[in-house]
Amino acid sequence: MSTTAENIQQQISENPILIYMKGTPQLPQCGFSAQTVQALMACGERFAFVNVLDNPDIRAELPKIANWPTFPQLWVNGELVGGCDIVVEMYQNGELEPLVKEAAAKQQDDA
């Protein structure tokens, strides 16, 4: 049986665009998750998500692994981008979309 840390590493490595959030993209359970998902969806690419409310082990373990205490957390190409404030700011200044598009293109090339 794999550990929670191994599950998290696998999720991050298998999903080039991954958000750990409270709720789902269709039904976010906190305002910060909602804002982050809106910015991500505006980039127009598919992304994976993990609802940390349904996964208390991940909710407890990920902040230790990421060295980031809060949710949501956006991961792109295995790297932590950040939480709500950083993602929204990157979207507003035009940095998020190229990052997301590049990760999505890379995923299609690898497929």
From TrEMBL:
Metal-binding found in the keyword field: yes
InterPro entries, A to Z: Glutaredoxin (IPR002109), GRX_PICOT-like (IPR033658), Monothiol_GRX (IPR014434), Monothiol_GRX-rel (IPR004480), Thioredoxin-like_sf (IPR036249)
Organism per entry: Franzmannia qiaohouensis
Positions in coiled-coil regions: none
Taxonomic placement: Bacteria, Pseudomonadati, Pseudomonadota, Gammaproteobacteria, Oceanospirillales
Domain Glutaredoxin: 17-81
UniProt KW keywords: 2Fe-2S, Iron, Iron-sulfur, Metal-binding, Redox-active center
PROSITE patterns to which the protein is assigned, alphabetical: GLUTAREDOXIN_2 (PS51354)
Gene3D superfamilies named among the record's database cross-references: Glutaredoxin
CDD domains attached to this UniProt entry: GRX_PICOT_like
This protein's name: Glutaredoxin
Pfam family, one: Glutaredoxin
Family: Belongs to the glutaredoxin family. Monothiol subfamily.
